[in-house]
From TrEMBL:
Pfam families: Ferritin-like
Identification of the protein by name: Iminophenyl-pyruvate dimer synthase domain-containing protein
Domain Iminophenyl-pyruvate dimer synthase: 18-239
Alphabetical list of InterPro entries matching this protein: Ferritin-like, VioB/RebD_dom
Lineage of source species: Bacteria, Bacillati, Actinomycetota, Actinomycetes, Streptosporangiales
Gene3D superfamilies from the UniProt entry: 1.20.1260.10
Amino acid sequence: MTEPPIVIEHREHVWYLLVQASQLEHMIMCQYLFAEFSLKADGLTEEQQAAVDRWRQELHGIAVQEMLHLALVANLMSAIGAAPTFGRPNFPQSCGAFPPSIQLRLLPFGEAALAHFLYLERPEGMKRHDAAEFISCAPPPEPIAAGEIFPRAQEFATVGHLYRGIKDGLTALVAKYGEEQVFCGSPQAQATPELFRWPEMVAVTDLASACAAIDEIIEQGEGAQGAWQDAHYGRFLKIWEEYHALRAADPAFEPAHPALGAFTRQPFDVGEPQPLIGDPRTLALAELCNLAYEAILWLLTRFFTHTDESEEELDVLISAAITTMAAVLRPLGTELCRRPAGPAHPGRTAGPAFEMYYLMDNVVPWREAAWTVLIERLRQIAERCASHAATDPVIAAASEQVTAVADALDAARAKAASGITAPGGSA
């Protein structure tokens, strides 16, 4: 398959494409998490359950790497003077935020989800069909003509194609304007391997490090130079083969709950009506799940757009985001996939829709105000969890974790205010 070249003539073209890359990595990660949460933990044969447990670990590992990709894109944006963003459109996305060849929807683990994941992760140039649920509904955008000053959507059929276009564009801009001009962002704004606790994390300060960050994304997703066996594409292909072997042995094998990406209310940016949760107890759990997700995004936003935080405070922010994801969002989302969606959806369970309630932007740049807002929101989530904790052990455990996260941020804020740790980490 031949894909049209991506045109980059100035910084805003790169900026626009990096925003799209950020939203795409974010939404792909949510799709993988949804499929992971939907997998069953009982009711299967020993062989089937062992396979499902392997798939759960694989999906979780791939989703975590998508989080790394999102962080690498944030570093690329900071490096060229753009503010990293964790906002995105709501699901589903058919023909709007991305080219019509890229469509996104929350699906429980199964035939359709695996076909869709393989399609998204396929190496550039490989022909593969998306799942039947995804039908192209619009022609591709017209190529950008020479001299166009305003950035706009461009066609890319694969994730690898998008990133190679960004890499080529950055190379051309450096040749045109010079490295110092293109990479004008502060090195202090970069997430480092030490701060982000990821050896694969690349701090982007020049063209070489930008290319290294992009290569990391491409290699983990589709594989380097055709070696896709250990990349996301190859890992999904192995799951696909195991899944079909188990289905051939037992046609009744259903590894996942019939989860539905149901909303608590109609999303503000999706035209067609979306499924809504009708069961009151499920609705309360879904609201808490969405609040935890929102808190993670705010914590990451502050981490990647920090101002005068010390390294100790940055460590508190990233620890808070990781804890909230692992100890709050994951158990709540998993439980949600086991709860009934409501009378309007017989036989279906709910699932986290990862709702965006509004156009998310950054909080104010001043540290004290930003931390006050973060702590206040975490306290609200903890209080809301506590109101349901007596009747729901999953929510009770989440309440304790959110409270601990809020306490950690509060302690770090108090320490900074007392002058024990000054901005930059000096005593």
